[in-house]
């Protein structure tokens, strides 16, 4: 049976589920020996701010929240300074805070999420998707490579240097 997968804006009623999913991801990063997300970010205030600003998105499977992310249009101050070079300087969607509920882990949902993000980007007439991740976030690095994202250099964000990627969509 095929599941119905949808990407939608997060609502304040989703806050506790989103925070639970992020806490699982924070713990997974810690268990993997990563320094990413180990200094109190993201936190519940981050989730509430994402939702209030309209940045928070959830991917649902048959109506159940499976993945959380923040999608920000044309606004990531840290991206204005890059050690390297972006592929483009037009409009872009920034992807932050990707987290999968443990009960849906290992099902390739982040790859599906990126498909939905790219469809969303195209539907908005926006040129590219930009994303960064920690040097030691091997799962995300592999996903970005598999989805055709180009390594562009490094940006300073959330207290450290991050690998920065971009994919031209249109």
UniProtKB/TrEMBL annotation:
Listed GO MF terms: acyltransferase activity, transferring groups other than amino-acyl groups
Taken from the record, one Pfam family name reads Acetyltransf_1
Cellular component per GO, a single term: ribosome
Specify the superkingdom. Bacteria
N-acetyltransferase domain sequence ranges: 5-166
Q: Which UniProt keywords apply?
A: Ribonucleoprotein, Ribosomal protein
Q: Does the keyword Cell wall biogenesis/degradation apply?
A: no
From the Swiss-Prot or TrEMBL record, give the protein name: Ribosomal protein S18 acetylase RimI
Q: Which organism is it from?
A: Chryseobacterium soldanellicola
């Amino acid at each position: 049976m095929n599941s119905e997968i949808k990407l939608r804006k997060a609502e304040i009623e989703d806050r506790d589920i989103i925070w639970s999913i992020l806490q699982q991801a924070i713990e997974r990063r810690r268990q993997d020996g990563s320094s990413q997300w180990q200094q109190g970010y993201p936190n519940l205030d981050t989730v509430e701010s994402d939702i209030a600003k309209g940045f928070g998105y959830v991917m649902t499977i048959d109506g159940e929240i499976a993945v959380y992310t923040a999608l920000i249009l044309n606004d990531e101050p840290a991206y204005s300074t890059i050690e390297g070079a972006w592929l483009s300087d037009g409009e872009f969607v920034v992807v932050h805070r990707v987290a999968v509920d443990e009960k849906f882990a290992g099902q390739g949902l982040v790859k599906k999420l990126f498909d939905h993000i790219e469809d969303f980007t195209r539907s908005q007439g926006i040129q590219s998707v930009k994303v960064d991740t920690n040097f030691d976030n091997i799962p995300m690095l592999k996903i970005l490579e598999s989805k055709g994202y180009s390594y562009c250099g490094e940006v300073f964000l959330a207290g450290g240097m991050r690998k920065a990627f971009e994919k031209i969509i249109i």
